[in-house]
């Protein structure tokens, strides 16, 4: 999606129900009703153990020939385009849309028009917003995190940390900020909310509220990583220069050190941070590169 200026988001209506059951499998879906009658599914119902994999495999295979400009995730189809080959972005947009619709028509896949977005400058993709300028966190998730009241128990804190961790790629040094809070969740830890915990709680909120717009990776351009280590955590950032030569962050990653790792000398912690950066940078951004 890097460099694209127009986006489309399509939502397949009642996704599972668009797949017919194999005739020999129909009796296996029978359910008994209070009247004593048996009802059998003619289409794939929700609840079958292999239903998600079956549906996702179908959609992925159908749109694989179009993956240079159309990606899928279950019942969502994301299409992106830019001006190319002497055509404007809108002309390319219409050409891509026609090819996607041709695949849908040939395979009798139907979209929910009320949930579809066409010719947009940005769309929501898997919990974040993607546009020409990059990737930004869902404002709704950020607002929910910032509005969360001070936790009163381990259960409350665990819920909030799960929500905050979902956005951790937008926060530099998240693991270091969250360390005092993580200590409260240890098995034998007493629940005593002190000033250091409130400071950590507020710092994470502030970090997410001022989260930067992350860059979309360009597979044709070189990447760079920076890493660092402290007494309790290691972290890194995956970077890439844009067309104007400005270095932009693609993703932040960090984790807390294990008990044994805290005893490492400084240079070993730095080497551990370098290894962590290289492993996470080579694997962590592949999903975004596939959207390129």
UniProtKB/TrEMBL annotation:
Stretches that traverse the bilayer: none
Domain Reverse transcriptase: 1-130
UniProt feature coiled coil, ranges: none
Gene3D superfamilies: 3.30.70.270, HIV Type 1 Reverse Transcriptase, subunit A, domain 1
Keywords: Nucleotidyltransferase, RNA-directed DNA polymerase, Transferase
Protein name, per record: Reverse transcriptase
PANTHER family: POL PROTEIN (PTHR33064), RIBONUCLEASE H (PTHR33064:SF37)
GO MF terms, alphabetically ordered: RNA-directed DNA polymerase activity
UniProt-listed SUPFAM superfamilies: DNA/RNA polymerases
This protein's record includes keyword Nucleus: no
């Amino acid at each position: 999606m890097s460099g694209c200026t127009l986006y489309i988001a399509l939502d397949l209506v009642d996704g599972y129900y668009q797949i017919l059951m194999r005739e020999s499998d129909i009796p296996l879906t029978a359910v008994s009703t209070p009247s004593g009658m048996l009802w059998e599914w003619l289409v794939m119902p929700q609840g079958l153990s292999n239903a998600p994999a079956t549906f996702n495999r179908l959609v992925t295979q159908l749109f694989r020939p179009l993956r240079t400009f159309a990606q899928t995730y279950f019942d969502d189809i994301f299409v992106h385009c830019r001006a190319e080959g002497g055509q404007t972005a809108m002309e390319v947009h219409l050409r891509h849309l026609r090819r996607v619709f041709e695949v849908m028509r040939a395979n009798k896949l139907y979209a929910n028009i009320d949930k579809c977005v066409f010719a947009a400058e940005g769309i929501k993709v898997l919990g974040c917003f993607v546009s020409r300028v990059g990737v930004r966190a869902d404002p709704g998730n950020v607002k929910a995190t910032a509005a969360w009241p001070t936790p009163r128990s381990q259960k409350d804190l665990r819920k909030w940390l799960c929500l905050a961790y979902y956005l951790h790629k937008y926060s530099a040094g998240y693991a270091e900020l969250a360390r005092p809070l993580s200590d409260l969740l240890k098995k034998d830890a007493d629940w005593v909310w002190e000033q250091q915990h409130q400071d950590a709680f507020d710092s994470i909120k502030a970090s997410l509220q001022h989260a930067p717009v992350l860059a979309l990776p360009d597979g044709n351009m070189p990447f760079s990583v920076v890493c660092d280590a402290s007494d309790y955590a290691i972290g890194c950032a995956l970077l890439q220069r844009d067309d104007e030569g400005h270095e932009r962050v693609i993703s932040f990653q960090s984790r807390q050190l294990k008990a044994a790792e805290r005893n490492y000398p400084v240079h070993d912690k730095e080497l551990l941070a370098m290894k962590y950066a290289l492993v996470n940078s080579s694997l962590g951004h592949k999903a975004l590169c596939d959207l390129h």
